[in-house]
């Protein structure tokens, strides 16, 4: 009907009930779903529990067919009346194929059910075992704890186990009270009474439901008798050096308390003994530590006393003790030993045959106690070069040389050290067991004989003389060559090199240095072809005893490393503005020289200060002299020229004779001259010149890097001298100006 909600869930809402502890799949309620005749497809969304109050997953909906459904328990969780809610509201939703929906509630009430009583504590999960010592007086031995889920009053009683009851006389010596306390009713005797009892404890609720658990009661034996030794033997004999674990004796004892069962006894050694131990459970006495008859204290006393104790408890109890004696027999268990076992001796090369080198018997001994076991001899001399040595006898053990050794002889292969071995062996047969394969009846001596070489030969240079060509510009510290020397001694001698003569100059004692170990020659100071063209050195090679010398010639090769030096290198001039072009200015010229260049190699050019190119030098190349020429007129009126003072830097290079390609590869040097030229504007009177002088400084390039202070001192002294001369010139000009008027006197008297 229009406006009315469709009812699809038939039989809902409703109320139903279910018992607690219901298993999974128990039907709680059944209902139907009604769909419209216009909806042949049926239900689109099956009935579903969409919510519950309180929340739970204990319920689900299953189909019974033909649109009939039932609400069932899931068993997860199991419904419990005592611990869970008593009622659940389940909201059930359904939707048919036409989109019609319905939502209704099913109320499920949980009903109580009488349950069996349950044991608590240990009895709830396992069989309880109770232990009672024999001789214990009657008392409460256990408290049973049980509960009824419905909180009803419980009654507790016990029934003997049917299986155990058949083994025990009736009645059993136990009772249980209404409160669940279990009591013993007699004093137990382990040797007379049963050793265990099984009791079935039953608890019953008012409606007759009950639960049963089993209690196991064990009677514990107590120790009240002293054990005694049953082994009668008191003296034992064993050889020394028995391996750990070797059985010496089997000590046994008996405890009267355990006559019906194997005795539970504990064995121990009371005396302080490092050689033996006893199994605490079995009484087997066995070797623990090394038993050496040849070492103190057994070297003096060969008997060992051991006190064995037996007790019937691991911690105290009843005990008994017995002393046994163990006699240790000596065996031949020690090979001869040498200390040291390695010897190093030296013998000079060419030592004569028959020379004794070593007495081995002084270093060897056998520590066996029995004299029949400590005799030994020497034999088996072997090793590399053993044919050069021999033992005087097997008894003495004296090692001697049989022939002289020459290390340079090819037959000796140039070997310096001979490795020998000698075997030191027991004379008596060893008494070793197969258990000790690491024991041997002999010792090995290692002897190393070093033959000290004798210096027989002089060093010999690979060449009688050496010659090395070195450019003069080679850097200080550079290697210029190597000399090499050897001698025929074996092993090869260490050769050291030194310069014993030559290689010095006026300024340097040693221009050269030689590596003492490699023979490399290096230069210590700058070479100068113009000063020294050749050095002749005497080089010595030494093997610490013998020496040899060789001549070394060092040729210094000329390299263009000198700059042109010109005179003067600084000059000041004054010229009139109207000086004619082509005039040699003030007759000035420079003269240059270069110690390692031809005079024709000079080339002159003004590098700086030649504004408008008024000045030039002629000739500009090919000569060691050149004049300063005015190349063009001055033009101050039009403003072309504005400078009245010219500071010219003139460069003089020594590359004039080189081609254009050679200039890029050959070393060239450049000198410099500085000129100050003052232009005098339109002079109208005759300029009177006064006597003057020109200082010409001749320079020679003898500079050394190690003498840096020389140019510094020269430069400083030159500056001070020039300053002094300038000051004197100034004083002279002042005096002349005061003494000599410019034209004449007023009275017409001539000057």
From TrEMBL:
Keyword annotations: Calcium, Cell adhesion, Membrane, Repeat, Transmembrane, Transmembrane helix
Keyword Calcium: yes
Major localization listed first in the record, in broad terms: membrane
Domain Cadherin: 10-119, 124-229, 230-338, 339-461, 462-570, 567-693
Transmembrane segments: 708-736
SUPFAM superfamilies with a match to the protein in the record: Cadherin-like
GO biological process assignments: homophilic cell adhesion via plasma membrane adhesion molecules
Alphabetized PANTHER family for the sequence: CADHERIN DOMAIN-CONTAINING PROTEIN, DESMOGLEIN FAMILY MEMBER
Listed name of the protein: Cadherin-related family member 3
Source organism: Mesitornis unicolor
